[in-house]
Amino acid sequence: MNEIEDEAGWDVEPGDEIEPLVQAVGRMLRVFRELAGMRVADLAEAMRYGEDMIRKIERGVRIPRPEFLDRVDQLLNAQGNLRAFMEDMQKARYPKKVRELKEMEDRAVEMLLYSNHNIHGLLQTPEYMQALFDIRQPPYPQDVVDRDVAARIARKSVFDRSPEPALCFIQEQVTLERPIGGKAVLRRQLEHLLEVGRLRNVALQVMPTDCEEHAGMNGLIEVLKFSDGTAIGRSDGAFNGRPVSNPRDLRVLELRYGMMRAQALTPRESLAFIEQALGAL
After folding, report:
1. pLDDT for 25-49, tens place per residue?
2. 3.40.50.970, 1.10.260.40, 3.30.930.20, 2.30.30.60: which CATH number matches 3-92?
3. pTM of this prediction?
4. Under DSSP, is residue 94 helix (H, G, I), strand (E, B) or coil?
5. Would you say domain 106-280 falls under CATH 3.30.870?
6. Does residue 114 contact residue 215 with C-beta atoms inside 8 Å?
7. Is 242 left (phi over 0), alpha (psi -120 to 50) or beta?
8. Helix, strand, or coil here: 166?
C-alpha cells in the first residue's frame, strides 16, 4: 500500500455522531470530482492514493485527513468548500471517547489528577506515549497506535489555553522510575516533567512509595471543574468507576484528593525528587 495512502485517515466508528458529517464531506468530494470531469481513478492517480481509498472517503466510511482536504480542494477547484471542513475532520480523526474528554478538558478551569501506574496522559512525551501503546497486549494495529498517540498529543493543547486552567497532578513514585521505552525515553520524560512542573499554573507532586498513609489506594482519581460551578469526576475505586457529577459524590473524590496532596511531597520537593531521579539515570 502506498505510504501516502496509509495516511489518508481512519475509518469512522459505527454509530459515532460524527458519521453524518463525514458522509456529507464524502458526498461533496464526489460532486466536485464529477464537476471537474474526473473519474475515481483519475483523482486517485493525481492524489497518489488508491482508488479504494477515494471510494471509502466518498462513501463516508473513511475520515479524510485535513491535509487531504487541503490538497484535493486545490486540485478540484472547490473554492474552499472542502478545505472548510479541515478542522472538523481533524477532530473527527480521534476516537469518540477522546473527543469527549478533550472537550471537557478544554472547558475545565481546574483539574485534579492522580495517576498510579503511568505518567498521566497530559504529561507524557510522544516517545513515552508510543512506548506505552507498543507494549499493550494483545498488540494494537499500527494505525490504531498512531491514532491514539495523535489524539493524546492533541489533548496537550490544554497547556496553551488562555486563561490558563489550574492543573494539579499527583504521580506515584514508581511511575517516575519504571523505564517505559528504555532509559533514554524515561530521561526525556523526566526532563519534560521538570519543564511542566515549573509552569505557574501547574502543581506537580510525587507520592513517595514509603509513605505510610495514602488516601488514594483505590486508584486513579480525576476531577474536572468548570466555570459555571459544575464538575465531573471519576475514580477506579469509587462509584464502580463511573463518572459522577452530583456534589455529594464529587465531595468524596475531592476529600480523598485533598488528603493525598497533604501526604505527598510538596511541589518544590517533588521537582527536587525528579531532578534526583534524572541524575541517577
Report:
1. 999 999 999 999 999 999 999 999 8
2. 1.10.260.40
3. 0.76
4. coil
5. yes
6. no
7. beta
8. strand
